[in-house]
């Protein structure tokens, strides 16, 4: 039988002492933090809209002076997943 008490203790320790983020901050997260709230809201709606490709979003951002590549946009869209960025969902 599995050790539920040991698992509970281990999970509690992880909650109290989360790992520090590694590596640079997400490019899309950095862009979102640096733009006005209304534009950030519009960008977030586009990021959540699966019918708009990551390439089109990256092209629009890059064309407006926020250089980013499509894989970074796709990674941000997967935030919260094991293969996504660390930005909160």
Notable features of this structure?
56% helix, 89 residues, mainly alpha
Description of the structure:
This protein has 89 residues and is mostly helical. Helices cover 56% and strands 0% of the residues. The chain has five helices and no strands. Helix 4 packs across helix 5. The mean pLDDT is 91.
Helices, strands, pairings?
Layout: H1 4-16, H2 27-34, H3 37-47, H4 54-63, H5 70-77
Helix pairs in contact: 4-5
Oligomeric state of the chains? single chain
- The residue ranges in which pLDDT falls below 50 over 5 or more consecutive positions are none
Could you tell me the mean pLDDT? 91
SSE run = HHHHH
Number of strands: 0
Distance between the termini: 35 Å
Shape label: elongated
Q: Report helical residue fraction.
A: 55-70%
Strand content: under 5%
Strand pairing plus helix content: what structural class?
mainly alpha
Number of H/I helices: 5
Largest sheet: none
Radius of gyration: 17 Å
Brief synopsis:
It is built from five helices and no strands. It is mostly helical.
């Amino acid at each position: 039988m599995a050790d539920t008490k040991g698992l509970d203790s281990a999970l509690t320790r992880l909650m109290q002492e989360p790992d520090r983020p590694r590596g640079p901050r997400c490019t899309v997260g950095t862009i979102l933090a640096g733009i006005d709230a209304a534009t950030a809201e519009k960008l977030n709606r586009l990021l959540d809209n699966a019918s708009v490709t990551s390439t089109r979003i990256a092209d629009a951002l890059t064309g407006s002076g926020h250089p980013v590549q499509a894989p970074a946009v796709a990674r941000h869209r997967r935030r919260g997943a094991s293969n996504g960025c660390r930005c909160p969902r």
